[in-house]
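Example record

One chain of 300 residues, shown exactly as stored in the release files.
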Amino acid sequence: MYEWNEMVQLMVDWVETNITESSSLLKMSEQLGYSPFYCSKQFNQLTGMTLRDYVWTRRISRAALELRDTDQRVLDIAVKYGFSSQEAFTRAFNKAFQLSPAAYQKAPRPIPLAIRQEVFSPYHYLIKERDKMSKVHLQSAEIKVEFIPTHKFIGIWDISVTNYGDFWGNGHSCDEVSGTLESMSNNTLPGQLGQTAGWFYQSGQKGYLYGIPVSTEYDGPIPAGMECRDIPESEYLVFFHPPFNYLKDNGAVMGMVEDVAWSFDPKSLGYQWDELIKQDYQRHFPEGYGYAVLRPVKRL
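Predicted structure tokens for this chain:
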């Protein structure tokens, strides 16, 4: 039923691996075992864009990150990502981001980078494998204490939703928001992951947030539709599960960690919840970090 979700995800993986190569649809389709026409048709149906447009947007976005993070010449980056000349690269960059690559390299600012497509999720995997999956044995959530210094948080606070799926279904463009925050990833608060979600509390009501933590010294532009808030320093109880298989175990891991986080009594560790910091954080990077819920506390 979800064969083509999985196959299109393999196409995405292939594009990412060969992003700087003179790749061809024919070569990719031969490796996947389907005709070029059928690959193109299914990719467009599941992502809403042509495979050619996807490759173009990912190349220009990856090139933007190299402009931001390296001292390479614009021409060298243009050639690396398959543009015939610096002029062709400049035209493409202007079309995508409304500024020249030279101007961006000189003064980086938030821009809507194209993010990697994801069309094969844990939901699809569970449906596909439901008849042959054995019971999953998960590690219990670990609990540790982490200090996070005073910082700023740039993002969106939506009081009308309480979870990740509803957040993106409530008028926020995942591609645009995530792509813009990705362009700001070099400003991330040291020691923290990049894009971060979580919950906040306002007048007794719980909402959902998504953004990026940055240092207190950040004085750059704030993307349209987002705001910047100052978050005081605090210790946090971190309810954590180490890296796991995203497709097979994501729902079970998140549910187990969150059950512990919401039911735990911090007094057993000599703490109480810090009511002055009215937001909790999520960290979700299954194969690299794992999953964690962070709740602010103060010593009794």
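Notes: The mean pLDDT is 87.
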